[in-house]
Amino acid sequence: MKFTVVKPVILASASPRRKEILSLLGFPFTVVPSNVAEDLAVENDDFEGYARQLAAMKTQAVANDKPNCIVIGADTIVVHEGKLYSKPESNEQAQVFLKELSGKTHSVITGVGVFMDDKICTFSVQTKVTFRELDDMLINAYVESGDPMDKAGGYGIQTAGALLVDKIDGDYYNVMGLPIAKLTEYIRKLGFMELNGGVSFIDN
C-alpha cells in the first residue's frame, strides 16, 4: 500500500525511528532536523498541549525555510504522576527514571505538527505503558548498553527496552515516536495525501 502527496514532504526530525515509520507510507521524503531546544515550560499540567506546542515549534522551524512543502514534526514525552521524564542526561539519571517507572503505568504522549500552505495543524496521541518490576541488575545492564540516552523516559520499546515492558494500551508506533495510523488519517482528511489510484478518504 502506497500513498501519493500533493507536495514534497519533509520530516522535521533526526530520529531514525520516525524516519523508519514514515517510510511505511511509500512516498519519498527528506529529513531536515529542526534543532529546536526542548526547554518549554509545562503549564497547568497540560502535557498533551505541551507536546503539541513543541511539535508545532519544530515543524515551524523547518517550514520557515521550506514554505512550499508539507512539513511533519513531532515530539514525544513520557509522563508519570505529573512528572515529565525527558531524555536522561546521564547514566545515573536514566537509572533513577527506570526505578521510578518500575512496576508502574506511565503515559507516552506524542504531539505531531503538519505544515502546508502557511498553516500548522497539530494533534496528539497518548499510549499507556506498564513496566514490569525491574531489578537493579536489569536496569544497570540496560543503562550500560547506552540505549536510554536519546529516548524520552530513558527507554526505547523498539530496542532492548522492550524487555522492561509488561503491556501497552494504545498505539505501539506512538511509543516509538510517530503515531502513523493517526497521522495517515489526519493528513488524508486535510487533503494532503491519497492512496495510489485516487482512492479518497471516507469518513465513517
TrEMBL record:
- Enzyme class, broadest EC rank: hydrolase
Question: Superkingdom of this entry's organism?
Answer: Bacteria
| Catalysed reactions, as listed in the record | UTP + H2O = UMP + diphosphate + H(+); dTTP + H2O = dTMP + diphosphate + H(+)
| Matches recorded under Pfam families | Maf
Instruction: Locate the active site.
Output: D75 (proton acceptor)
What is the annotated localization of this protein? Cytoplasm
**Which EC number(s) are documented for this chain?**
3.6.1.9
What are the names of the required cofactors? a divalent metal cation
Q: Does the keyword tRNA-binding apply?
A: no
Annotated site residue numbers, Important for substrate specificity: R17, T76, Q158
Keywords (alphabetical) are: Cytoplasm, Hydrolase, Nucleotide metabolism
Q: Which family does it belong to?
A: Belongs to the Maf family. YhdE subfamily.
Query: What protein is this chain from?
Result: dTTP/UTP pyrophosphatase
Q: What is the protein's species of origin?
A: Sporosarcina psychrophila
